[in-house]
Amino acid sequence: MAETRLHCDVLVAGAGPAGIAAAIAARRAGKQVVVVDDNPHPGGQIWRGSMSGAHSTSAAARKWLQRFRASGAELLSSTRIVTAPGANTVLAEHEGNAIHIHYDALVLATGARELLLPFPGWTLPGVMGAGGLQAMAKAGLPLRGKRVVVAGTGPLLLAVAAAFVHEGATVPGVFDQASRENITAFAASLLTRPSLLMQGAGYLATIKSWRYRQGWWPLCVHGEATLQSVVMTNGSDTVEIACDYLACGFHLVPNIELGALLHCRIQNGAIIANEHQQTSVANVFTAGEAAGIAGLPQALVEGEIAGAYAAGAGNQVRHLLRRRTALRKVAARMNHAYRLRPELRALPQADTLICRCEDVSWQQLQGFSGMRSAKIHTRCGMGPCQGRICGAAMQFLAGWEADTHRPPLYPVQLSTLLPLAAHDTTHLEESI
Ligand SMILES: Cc1cc2nc3c(=O)[nH]c(=O)nc-3n(C[C@H](O)[C@H](O)[C@H](O)COP(=O)(O)OP(=O)(O)OC[C@H]3O[C@@H](n4cnc5c(N)ncnc54)[C@H](O)[C@@H]3O)c2cc1C
Question: What is the DSSP letter of 231?
Answer without folding.
Answer: E
